[in-house]
## 1
Amino acid sequence: MNQLDLNHLADTINKRGKTVGWSQGTFQPTHPEKYIGYGNPTYRSSWELKVMNYLDRNENVIHWGSETLRIPYMFELSTNGKQKNYYVDFYCEIRNQQGIVEKVAIEVKPLGQTAPPIPPKNKTAKAMKNYLYSVSTYVKNQNKWKAAEIFCRKNGMKFMLLTENDLFKK
């Protein structure tokens, strides 16, 4: 999928689906024949619910799954040196604007987790603890996304990261 098609996918998700605020639950697909996974998928945020609604209802989406794609990665801050598994939020097979079916791995994350955290001005114990947690989360996400990009490239897929800027364009 070229960049224009990825932008179209993000734009289309933005225009469809309902934003219901913070939520968690089990999604009941309208088109269960398209869903590839066991049981009904679980959403952990209204953002994931919005993507699920899009994937389920869009006629160009042939198949989709939630946390069905496992990608091995190394977390560079891990002390045990063991390989971890990253379950990408969504996998889909979608017909692009040229009619070609493409395989796409989609991760949904807040924009704040895609940029390095800024050190706190006041270096209190609590502020430093929060900062170190943010650094760890940032590094872990970067390690996962790098592994996902390599995995997808090797397997003829695209990796797409969606943030609130993609899901809630004005």
Note: The beta strands are 25-26, 42-43, 61-66, 70-73, 84-87, 90-95, 101-108, 157-162.
## 2
Amino acid sequence: MERAAPDKKILVINCGSSSLKYEVWQMPQRASMGRGIVERIGEPKGRISQKSPKGDLNRDKQVPDHKAAMQLASAALTDPERGIIGDLSEIAGVGHRVVHGGEQYANSVVIDGEVMKAIEKNCELAPLHNPPNLEGIRETEAALPGLKHVAVFDTAFHQTMPPEAYMYGLPWELYEKYKIRRYGFHGTSHRFVAARAMTLMKRVPENTNVITCHLGNGASVTAIEHGKSIDTYDLIFGAEVTWRRRQADVSL
């Protein structure tokens, strides 16, 4: 008789330039135990909002940097009355959303020194996202040392695209020197949507092709053949987004 996998609590972090989102998942049940967000990091007035079965927690407080944001999130997670967990020691591992893994990573990876260097190197490809992603990793590792921290890259899912899909009609030297190519984004979303579609349609990836759409602050569509991304496009011309100018491919 096989033993059931032990229950584990996994903390998921999505750290942006002015916000830190977090959620705790009970595994292997894949059940959310609660989530929260620290907003307006670096502004005169910050705020944390958290939802869990114990109730909502909302506090206004200045959050000068990502270190303070992680400290605020840790306190909310373990709040005696409305916390999600009793103690940070209950967390078994941490997952970090990282926007750009470049050409190095086609899968999620356990974070070590080499991974941190790669994320930092790819800051030039994602200057608005990778730097705060790095800050989130550093501060979470400081708050939760000794645990495995895993980077989940938005670009990883699209590393299966063939050259004819990811290369631009530009001089080859620009790719060799600056790595200018289409990388694709929102990969975690496209992967999930495709898998969910398979479940709802009662089909399997091996004999199914789908087109997935990610619609949010950014928007993109992806062509998926037999479970793998073969082409993707950021909808900066046809979709309203909150901060990008709709004039050129955002990948450039």
Note: The chain is about 25% helix and 30% strand.
## 3
Amino acid sequence: MTAKNLLNTEVTMGIIAAQRGMWFEEFEVGQCIITPGRTITESDIVSFAGLSGDYNQIHTDVEFGSKTPFGKRVAHGLLGLSIVSGLAMRTGVLEGTVIAFREINHWKFSLPIFIGDTIHGELNIIETKAIPRLGGGSLNIEIVVINQRDEVTMKGIWTALVASKPK
């Protein structure tokens, strides 16, 4: 396969498989992976409201939010969950190796996330189970979502199916 570079010179391109994730066998109970952080914006909340159809006033109405026990608007809980899912993928540990995201268990929303908060996730491997018929295994991952004040905003357990290293 050939292509032209910026100088209009023909170059030969090789096809390289992009797999940077960890195989099932590389995960061990006790491993902890820290995601990068991300600041929640008003645009995130408005976009999520449009995507989900959840225009609840606690998320979208400044005046209403000011009269709640929180004193201001809060991000959708599922927005925080969705963002931490993306942050987990940004670590690269499941890039090209995840088969499926299977379950969410024991999820608890502990504190609100506000516009301007920066959250990150801590992913703790708590159980591994080989499933040879799937060509991989199951990981139970405790996810803890933490804000810039080092407060836990939500946590729970995800189950993901991850491929085994090819033989």
Note: The chain has one domain: 24-163.
